[in-house]
C-alpha cells in the first residue's frame, strides 16, 4: 500500500474523488431512469395474461447479453463516440430495466385481489386505484429489486474501464498496467463501500416511505 | 357514542320502498359459466337481506351486480326505480358501503385513513373526515388509540370492525357485505353479528349480506334468500317461514333435517316453569312406590336419576340445560334424553335447579311455533338505546335476558327486545342483540 499515492490523489481533488463522483453518476442515473421506465412497463406487463410470460423471458435474455458486447455495440447503434459516458448509462439502463421490470410485475401481481376489489368497491377511479393503492402495495417488492440493481450497477460500471470509461474501475486498469496495487485496493474498497452505503440508504428510504411494510418482502 | 347525528341523516329515508330490484337478471361469464340466471329479487329498504347458499351458487356475482363491479348480461337492476346503468359507477359505489372477508382493508393505510377512504373521495375536508372516523371507531366498539395503527397490527375481529366502520363512513344508505365474518372465530363472529344487528337497528341501514352459513343467515336476516347453484332462488322469506315451511328437499336439506327443531335455537328457555324435584345422595335411598328423584353429589350437582321402579341402580342423567341462559332447543334435548321424561335444569354453578316436564317443554315449543306463524309482517321498531349500557358482568344480566314465555304476558316483537343482552357469545343470539360496547376489545387485542 502506498498511502502517499492516495494522499496525493485526494489532495488535488482530481483522480479518486473525481472518479468516485463519476462512478456514482454512471451507476445511479440508470437506476433512476430504469425505475421511471419500469414502473409503467411493469404495470402494463402485469395486466397482460398470456403475453406476460414471453415478455419476461425476453427481459431475461436481454440481461444475459454480455455487458462488454453491449458497451462496444452501443456506439454503433446510438451513433455516439466510443468514449461517450452515455454509452455506459444506456447500457446499464437496459440491464436495470430488464431486472427491475420483473420486480415491478411481481409487486403488482402480489397486490391482494381483495384489496384491489375493496378499492374498486369504495368508488375509486382506475387511475387513483393504481396510484394510491396498487403502486404503494407493489413498492416493497420494487424496493427489493431496486437494492439488487443498485448494487449490481455499482459493480458493473467498472467493466467500462475496458473501453476506457470505468470510473473507479479505471483504477484497476491503472494498477494492472503499472504493476502497482494501491489503486486496485482503493478501487475495490470504494466500490464495496459505495454498494453497502447505497444498499443501506435505499433500505432507509423504504423504512421511511413504507412504514407499514416492516419485515415484509425482502 | 354519538348516534344522534347518524340517525338524523337517515331520518328521511323511511318510505319503506323497495331499494334494489332485480328483474330477470342473468350473468354469464366469458368462459360460459352462468353464475346467475333469470333472477327476480326485491331487497327492501331498512332491512337485512341475507343471500345464503352453497359455495359457487352466484352470491358474490349477485352482490357485485348491485354496485356494478359486475354487469349483468341480461335483465335489469334498479335502485329506487332508477336503472343502475344510469348512475356513474364511482358515484354509485360511494353511496354503498362494502365489507368483505378480512375487512379488505388497505394494508398501507392507518386505521384512520382506511375509514376516511370514501369521505376523502367525496371531497370532505380533512378535519371533517377525521372527526367522523373517530366517531365511527367508537360506534363499532374500538378504542380511539387504534386510529394510527396499520391493519396488520390489529386482530382479525378488530380488522373486521374497522371494515364495518369504513363502509359506514360516508353514511351510505345501503351496506353490501360479502361473507364479512367468515374469517374470524365463532366467538368473535357472534360479537360482530351483534354489532351489525345493533347498528342496523340504530341507524336504519339497508343491508345486503352474503353468507354460506345458514345459522348466520337465520340470525342476521329479516329476509333470507336461499340460492342454489346457477344463481336461482330456492326459497325466500323470513327465517321462521323458511324453517317452518321449506319449499323443497334442497331447502330442507340446506336448513338442516332437524327443521322446526332448529327454530328452537332462537327461543330462550328462561321463563319455562321449573318445578322442584326431590334430590337424594344415593340411588339406594329411594323408597318403593315414590316418584323419581335426582341423585346429587356433595355440592348439589346432579349425577343421575333414581327411580323405585328400577330398584337401586343409578340411571343416566341425560342432557341438562342451564335454566337461565339456554334455548328451548336445549330443553327439548334434555327432556328427550332423560330416562324419566323430565329435563334437568342446572344453575350456572352446576347445582340442580329443578326440572321441566317433557309435556311443558313441548307445550312451549307449540306456543313458540304459533307465535312464529302469527308474527310475520309485524315489526314495530322499539328504538333501542345507544348501546351505551354499562357492560356489567354478563352473569348478572342473565335474569333479564329473554322474553317471558307466559302467553298471558304482552307479546314482544322479536328482533326488538327491550333489554340489550350482552351474554350472547357462545349461543347464537336468539332474536336480536345490542351493539357491542368497547369492553369487548381486551379479548381481541392484537398480540
Ligand atoms: N370472473 C369469473 N369468470 C368466470 N367464472 C366466474 C367468475 N367469477 C365467478 N365465476 C363462477 O361463477 C359461479 C358463481 O360464483 P360466485 O358468484 O363467486 O359464487 P359464490 O359467491 O356463491 O360462491 C361459480 O361457478 C364461479 O366459479
Ligand atoms: Mg362468494
TrEMBL record, chain A:
Cellular compartments annotated: Cell membrane; Membrane
One Gene Ontology term of the biological-process aspect is: transmembrane transport
This one is known as: ABC transporter permease subunit
> Which chain regions cross the lipid bilayer?
20-43, 55-74, 86-105, 154-172, 184-205
Residue span, ABC transmembrane type-1 domain: 20-202
Q: How does it sit in the membrane?
A: Multi-pass membrane protein
Q: Which family, according to the similarity comment? A: Belongs to the binding-protein-dependent transport system permease family.
Q: What Gene Ontology cellular-component terms does the record carry?
A: plasma membrane
User: One Pfam family from the UniProt entry?
Assistant: BPD_transp_1
Q: Where is the signal peptide?
A: none
Tell me the CDD domains matching this sequence. TM_PBP2 (cd06261)
Q: Tell me the keywords, alphabetical order.
A: Membrane, Transmembrane, Transmembrane helix, Transport
Main localization, broad class: membrane
Amino acid at each position: 500500500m502506498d498511502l502517499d499515492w492516495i494522499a496525493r490523489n485526494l489532495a488535488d481533488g482530481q483522480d479518486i474523488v473525481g472518479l468516485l463522483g463519476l462512478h456514482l453518476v454512471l451507476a445511479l442515473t440508470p437506476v433512476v431512469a430504469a425505475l421511471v421506465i419500469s414502473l409503467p412497463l411493469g404495470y402494463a406487463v402485469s395486466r397482460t395474461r398470456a403475453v406476460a410470460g414471453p415478455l419476461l423471458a425476453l427481459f431475461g435474455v436481454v440481461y444475459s447479453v454480455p455487458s462488454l458486447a453491449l458497451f462496444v455495440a452501443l456506439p454503433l447503434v446510438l451513433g455516439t463516440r466510443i468514449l461517450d459516458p452515455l454509452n455506459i448509462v444506456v447500457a446499464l439502463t437496459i440491464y436495470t430495466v430488464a431486472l427491475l421490470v420483473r420486480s415491478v410485475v411481481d409487486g403488482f401481481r402480489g397486490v391482494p385481489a381483495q384489496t384491489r376489489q375493496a378499492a374498486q368497491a369504495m368508488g375509486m377511479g382506475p387511475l387513483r386505484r393504481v396510484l394510491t393503492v396498487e403502486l404503494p402495495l407493489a413498492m416493497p417488492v420494487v424496493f427489493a429489486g431496486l437494492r439488487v440493481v443498485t448494487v449490481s450497477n455499482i459493480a458493473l460500471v467498472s467493466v467500462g474501464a475496458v473501453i476506457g470509461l470505468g470510473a473507479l474501475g479505471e483504477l484497476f486498469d491503472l494498477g494492472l498496467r503499472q504493476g502497482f496495487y494501491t489503486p486496485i485496493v482503493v478501487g475495490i474498497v470504494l466500490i464495496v463501500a459505495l454498494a453497502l452505503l447505497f444498499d443501506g440508504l435505499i433500505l432507509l428510504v423504504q423504512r421511511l416511505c413504507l412504514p407499514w411494510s416492516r419485515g415484509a418482502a425482502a | 357514542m354519538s348516534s344522534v347525528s347518524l340517525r338524523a341523516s337517515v331520518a328521511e329515508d323511511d318510505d319503506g320502498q323497495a331499494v334494489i330490484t332485480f328483474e330477470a337478471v342473468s350473468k354469464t361469464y366469458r368462459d360460459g359459466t352462468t353464475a346467475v340466471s333469470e333472477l327476480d329479487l326485491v331487497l327492501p329498504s331498512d332491512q337485512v337481506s341475507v343471500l345464503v347458499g352453497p359455495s359457487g351458487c352466484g352470491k358474490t356475482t349477485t352482490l357485485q351486480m348491485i354496485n356494478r363491479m359486475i354487469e349483468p348480461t341480461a335483465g335489469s337492476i334498479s335502485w329506487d326505480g332508477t336503472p343502475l346503468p344510469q348512475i356513474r359507477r364511482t358515484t354509485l359505489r360511494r353511496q354503498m358501503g362494502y365489507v368483505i372477508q378480512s375487512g379488505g382493508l388497505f394494508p398501507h393505510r392507518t386505521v384512520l385513513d382506511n375509514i376516511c377512504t370514501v369521505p376523502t373521495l367525496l371531497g370532505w375536508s380533512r378535519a371533517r373526515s377525521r372527526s367522523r372516523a373517530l366517531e365511527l371507531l367508537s360506534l363499532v366498539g374500538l378504542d380511539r388509540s387504534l386510529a394510527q395503527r396499520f391493519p396488520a397490527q390489529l386482530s382479525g375481529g378488530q380488522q373486521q370492525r374497522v371494515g364495518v366502520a369504513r363502509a359506514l363512513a360516508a353514511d351510505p344508505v345501503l351496506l353490501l357485505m360479502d361473507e364479512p365474518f367468515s374469517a374470524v372465530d365463532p366467538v368473535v363472529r357472534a360479537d360482530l353479528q351483534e354489532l351489525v344487528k345493533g347498528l342496523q337497528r340504530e341507524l336504519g341501514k339497508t343491508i345486503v349480506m352474503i353468507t354460506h352459513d345458514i345459522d348466520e343467515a337465520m340470525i342476521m336476516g329479516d329476509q333470507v334468500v336461499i340460492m342454489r347453484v346457477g344463481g336461482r332462488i330456492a326459497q325466500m322469506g323470513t327465517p321462521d317461514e323458511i324453517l317452518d315451511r321449506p319449499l323443497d328437499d334442497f331447502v330442507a336439506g340446506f336448513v338442516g333435517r332437524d327443521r322446526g327443531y332448529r327454530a328452537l335455537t332462537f327461543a330462550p328457555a328462561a321463563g319455562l316453569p321449573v318445578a322442584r324435584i326431590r334430590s337424594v345422595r344415593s340411588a339406594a335411598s329411594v323408597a318403593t312406590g315414590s316418584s323419581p328423584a335426582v341423585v346429587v353429589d356433595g355440592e348439589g350437582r346432579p349425577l343421575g336419576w333414581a327411580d323405585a321402579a328400577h330398584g337401586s341402580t343409578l340411571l343416566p342423567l341425560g342432557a341438562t340445560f342451564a335454566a337461565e341462559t339456554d334455548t328451548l332447543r336445549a330443553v327439548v334435548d334434555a327432556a328427550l334424553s332423560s330416562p324419566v321424561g323430565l329435563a334437568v335444569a342446572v344453575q350456572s354453578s352446576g347445582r340442580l335447579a329443578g326440572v321441566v316436564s317433557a309435556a311443558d317443554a313441548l307445550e312451549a315449543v307449540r306456543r313458540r311455533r304459533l307465535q312464529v306463524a302469527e308474527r310475520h309482517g309485524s315489526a314495530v321498531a322499539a328504538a333501542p338505546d345507544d348501546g351505551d349500557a354499562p357492560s356489567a358482568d354478563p352473569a348478572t344480566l342473565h335474569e333479564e335476558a329473554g322474553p317471558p314465555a307466559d302467553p298471558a304476558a304482552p307479546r314482544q316483537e322479536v328482533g326488538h327486545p327491550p333489554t340489550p343482552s350482552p351474554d350472547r357469545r357462545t349461543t347464537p343470539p336468539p332474536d336480536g342483540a345490542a351493539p357491542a360496547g368497547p369492553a369487548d376489545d381486551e379479548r381481541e387485542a392484537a398480540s
